[in-house]
Design a protein that fits this description.
- 45% of the residues lie in helices and 28% in strands.
- By secondary structure, it is an alpha+beta fold.
- It has two domains: 144 residues, Nuclear Transport Factor 2, Chain: A; 40 residues.
- It has a six-stranded mixed beta sheet.
C-alpha cells in the first residue's frame, strides 16, 4: 500500500468511529459511546471549561448528559475531515428533564443549538478526545436561565443579579459626566 492508500484507509476508519460515536449518542448507548474511545480518553466541554481526563471521567460526563437530556438527538449538518482530526458541525436537540452540571434541576424546557465537535484519534484510530464548542448563553436562555440585557426582563435580571457591578458602572458613568462638564467649562 502506498502512503496515500494508508491515509485513505485510516481516514475511513476514523470517520467510521465518529459515525458510530454519534449513532450511539443518538441511541443513548453509553457503553457504545465509550467503546469508541481509546484508553487515554479525554473530553473537553470548552464553554464550561469542563475538562475530563480518563475513561471514567469521560463516562461520567456522558452519563450525566444522557440523564439530563433523555431525548438527546444529534443531527450532523457538516463533516470536515483532516489528517489529524475530524470536525462535525451538528445540531443538538433535547428536553432538560434531569439534573445537569452537578446541580441545575430539570427545567422541562427544550433546547436546540448548533455545536462544533473536534475529534482526535489515538494510534489505534479510536477517539483520543472530543472537544466541543457552542454558545453557552443560547443554551442558558433556552433553559430560561439567561435573558439578553437589552430587554426589560434582561435589564431587571442583570440589576438584581449584579447590583454591585451595576452600581460601579453607574458611578463610573457619573464620574465621566462630571469630568466632561469640567473639560467643557475650561
Amino acid at each position: 500500500m502506498t502512503a496515500t492508500e494508508v491515509d485513505a484507509t485510516r481516514l475511513s476508519a476514523r470517520m467510521a468511529i465518529v459515525e458510530e460515536h454519534v449513532r450511539c449518542e443518538n441511541f443513548h448507548d453509553l457503553a457504545g459511546v465509550m467503546a469508541t474511545f481509546g484508553s487515554d480518553a479525554c473530553y473537553d466541554d470548552e464553554p464550561w471549561q469542563d475538562h475530563r481526563r480518563g475513561v471514567e471521567a469521560v463516562r461520567s460526563y456522558y452519563a450525566e448528559l444522557l440523564v439530563s437530556l433523555p431525548d438527546l438527538g444529534i443531527e450532523v449538518v457538516h463533516r470536515h475531515v483532516g489528517s489529524d482530526a475530524i470536525v462535525l458541525e451538528v445540531v443538538i436537540r433535547g428536553t432538560h428533564l434531569g439534573v445537569w452540571r452537578g446541580g441545575l434541576p430539570a427545567t422541562g424546557r427544550r433546547v436546540e443549538f448548533p455545536l462544533c465537535g473536534v475529534f482526535t484519534f489515538d494510534a489505534d484510530d479510536l477517539l483520543a478526545g472530543e472537544r466541543i464548542y457552542y454558545d453557552r448563553g443560547t443554551v442558558m436562555r433556552q433553559l430560561g436561565l439567561f435573558h439578553e440585557p437589552e430587554g426589560k426582563l434582561g435589564r431587571l435580571a442583570t440589576a438584581l443579579s449584579h447590583p454591585l457591578t451595576i452600581l460601579r458602572a453607574l458611578l463610573r458613568g457619573t464620574g465621566r459626566v462630571h469630568q466632561d462638564k469640567r473639560r467643557h467649562r475650561r
